[in-house]
Specification:
alpha+beta; 9-stranded mixed sheet; 3-stranded antiparallel sheet; 279 residues; binds ligand ZZB; Isoleucyl-tRNA Synthetase, domain 2
Length: 279
Amino acid sequence: QEYVLIKLKVLAPDHGQDRHAKMDALLKRVENEGKKGVFLVPATLRPETMYGQTNCFVLPTGEYGAYYIDATDEVFIMSARSARGLSCQAYNAASDIYFTKEFGKIECLETFSGDELLGLPLKAPNATYEKVYTLPLLTISMGKGTGVVTSVPSDAPDDYVALKALKDKPDFAAKYGITPDMVDPFEVVPIISIEGYGDASAVFMCEKLGITSFNDKVKLAQAKDETYLKGFTSGVMTVGPYAGKKVSEAKPLIKEEMIAANQAHLYFEPESKVVSRTN
Ligand code: ZZB
């Protein structure tokens, strides 16, 4: 499975939350050492949807690490499992450069619980919003991708349901230290138009199937499958430099551009069956 790692830059925590002490210290250390920044690195199959990002998700009880990437002189926040995977992969196959100096070895500078990453401000590449926040998502699998997920509620039904729950239930959000200003300003951004589904297919499908929560598992899976398929086969971009182009044509172009701009990298992992056996 080929994923695209998207680099969301961690900005200085701006809510005075005690749980951000470790991140504050890491950001200072990275700055003092002249390294190029700390990034949350969600794995996605839909790089063309990054215009619609409204937030990033982590699993509150998940375990994450801050890993030093020699190839870019940056620090990536991801699961230990995915960091190990990355340390075995080429950063640039053509020039034989690997992500880390030593094959299969990666330096962990700090560890974080998902909770310690919640409420962090981030700069997300291609996003319409200048700054987005890290929010909780309880259905994240730590055995897939990097354990970090970027949120596109216009085109991902899971993301729409999760963001809506945090907006509609301030008590639920408060339980995770999420304040209204981290969710309320972030409206769905329409980015892809699909005939018969409007310009925010995930919202359309959730409303059509009457999905109100994560308990509607079967319907959510159906909504996800249908938006995936329709988005790719008949979606047309409505934003960005490829507005008017079909998703199937724009996707590889946007992917290559993001990689060339150092906003994204390729990340490979074994097919899911193998992943679940080894985890
Ligand atoms: C942005 C995005 C925009 C995504 C969209 C989907 C959609 P798959 O097919 O099951 O491999 N994801 C990535 N890692 C995880 C994880 N550890 N736990 C839960 N979800 C994860 O799914 C890959 C997609 O699932 C990824 O692509 C990511 O969300 C999420 F408009 O990134 B995606 C209809 C889906 N649309």
